[in-house]
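Practice record 12: protein with glutamine.
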Amino acid sequence: MRVGVLGLQGDVPEHLQALQAMLPPDSVQPVRRPSDLEDLVALFMPGGESTTIGRLLEETGLAPALRARIRKGFPVLATCAGLILLAEAIEASPGGRDPTPLGVLAVTVRRNDYGTQRESFEGPVEIDGLSAPFPGVFIRAPRLLEVRAPATPIARWSGEVVGVRQGALWGLTFHPELSGDGRVHALFLAETTGFGQRRPASHRKTNTNRTTKPTATASQ
Ligand code: GLN
């Protein structure tokens, strides 16, 4: 069994690394064209620039292929720009072009709604199914303006909903792949596919005690 990481733009290496640390060798692959989706049990959609990723999803033919699979129950964990691209609706961001989303997750989002890169921040996120708070890394994060059934909130930061679930579709406004903590990836895989073993510990020994603000490394 294999899982994929959408490999068009953004923090693809970080998702690959997080997954490689918890899964058997050769069970993680980047996805760049529709045929790459075959045989996958789940897909991770990274953060990055949602307008760019959205354009590439259309150009590669991945948009319709992915939408069709998702409608049949294909598990997807989408982070930040990935969440924006799953949304049913995007409320216009001030002065920004917005991508055309896949329209599969019953939420309305607004891009960059916590401010610019300077206002990127970290904070403890309470996540259903995890006993201790998760270190949330928010980088030019979208805000979840509305969550509608069948989507339900699964993650909160400072009382605000920052993650939702709709069956096997999970969307988070923060970046679990950047915090050096594999619990979200492991929980998602265990709950939606039964693949992999749950590893509550950190997957990267470095970077767990990050004290600086996140900067625009791979994600924008
Ligand atoms: N601000 C980006 C966008 O709207 C998302 C940021 C991210 O994925 N870290 O596309």
